[in-house]
Write a structure and sequence with these properties.
Distance between the termini: 30 Å
Radius of gyration: 25 Å
Low-confidence stretches: none
Strand order of the largest sheet: 1-2
Helix content: 55-70%
Number of strands: 2
Shape: globular
Largest sheet: 2 strands, parallel
Number of helices: 17
């Protein structure tokens, strides 16, 4: 048992530190919950004027229903010639056919819709927390509110949540990739996001040159196995239709300056789309050979976005994951800074201003 005098001699800051820590954690968690609740409320209000509501979820669900009833999952306009994506919303599909069995548990309303939203938001929030936990240890939760609020109230997240778009959840997978570390992202996760939305498969490059081939082969074999397993469900013709629809897709270029839209006047749309894919591949390979984890992760995020023909604001969600990583690294470095002993110039200045006093070192 400690002497009473030693307890009384403890600095007030030391005695109140656990209380302050619990208070900061409580405030951070409360801010996070309130921000998510507000974003969900805004999404519900936004869908009151949308037809159909939760439009991207409705697109996945309608495609699943067509598959179940033996109909083509692609709109006839996608197969007959050039088309614009907004023209085939809910009547067409733009993802690999093997993605529909993954979506099957979420295809009904309201339970499936609520579960879909919870999965996507849960992946993102847990991924943000995992980043903070990696960089700041047990204190990461104290920074969760500060890190999540700019993401949640950004128009891209709100629009993505209102549409129930899968990009929110895939951005959460990207956040988990940083938290797990380079070379440690499970190949099955890369395979799932490749089946779900193709372009995020560039996450396979979140590795080193020594393990690149192994990563590509592992993820590729898992992806191929899933496509073969689901082939009796989706049919071989749906894959031919998918490739035709993918080639016929035309960017509207009304959302933002995508790589394809920038290059289209000079190269034509077909070559512009190929150039965007080539750029994504170059950025991905650059990430493999860059030593800095942060620079490599940023290149992965840019490669994730580069092939997107129509840049919507929620297409940029991977860049907000990069922001969270930068924020967490900055907080870790700031917390590690120590104030050293005062130099001679400072001691002379203080002694002249306050005779008989000396500046002390501290933190």
């Amino acid at each position: 048992m400690e002497p009473e005098s030693s307890v009384e001699g403890q600095a007030p800051a030391e005695r109140t530190r656990p209380l302050r820590r619990r208070l900061l954690i409580g405030v951070s968690v409360a801010v996070t919950v309130l921000a998510l609740a507000a974003a969900a409320g805004l999404a519900v209000m936004g869908n009151e004027t949308h037809n159909p509501p939760w439009v991207d979820w409705a697109t996945y669900s309608d495609a699943l229903q067509r598959l179940v009833h033996g109909q083509s999952i692609f709109d006839s306009r996608q197969l007959s010639g050039p088309y614009y994506l907004p023209d085939i919303t809910t009547t067409g599909y733009v993802y690999p056919p093997a993605s529909l069995p993954l979506f099957a548990p979420f295809g009904n309303q309201p339970i499936g819709l609520v579960a879909w939203l919870a999965l996507n938001v849960g992946l993102l929030v847990s991924g943000v927390y995992a980043i903070l936990r990696r960089e700041l240890g047990a204190d990461g939760v104290m920074y969760l509110g500060v890190a999540i609020v700019p993401v949640v109230f950004w128009i891209g997240f709100l629009n993505g949540l209102t549409a129930a778009n899968v990009t929110i959840g895939l951005s959460g997978v990207l956040a988990w990739a940083w938290a797990l570390g380079r070379q440690r992202t499970p190949p099955v996760a890369v395979a799932v996001i490749a089946v779900a939305k193709m372009f995020p498969a560039i996450l396979v490059c979140w590795t080193t040159p020594q393990k690149l081939v192994r990563s590509v082969l592992s993820a590729g074999l898992i992806c191929a196995a899933w496509c073969l397993i689901t082939l009796p469900l989706v049919g071989l013709n749906s894959w031919f239709d998918f490739l035709r629809a993918l080639g016929n897709a035309q960017p509207t270029c009304s959302y933002g300056p995508s790589v394809s839209c920038v290059l289209q006047p000079a190269l034509g749309i077909s070559l512009a789309k190929l150039a965007a894919l080539a750029l994504a591949g170059a950025l991905g390979l650059g990430a493999v050979f860059v030593r800095s984890d942060f620079v490599a992760f940023t290149l992965i995020a840019l490669a994730w976005i580069a092939p997107v023909s129509d840049i919507s604001n929620y297409s940029l969600m991977p860049l907000f994951v990069v922001w969270v990583v930068a924020f967490a690294i900055a907080m870790r470095r700031l917390r590690s800074v120590e104030i050293g002993p005062p130099g001679p110039a400072l001691r002379r200045l203080v002694s002249r201003a306050f005779p008989g006093s000396e500046p002390q070192a501290g933190r």
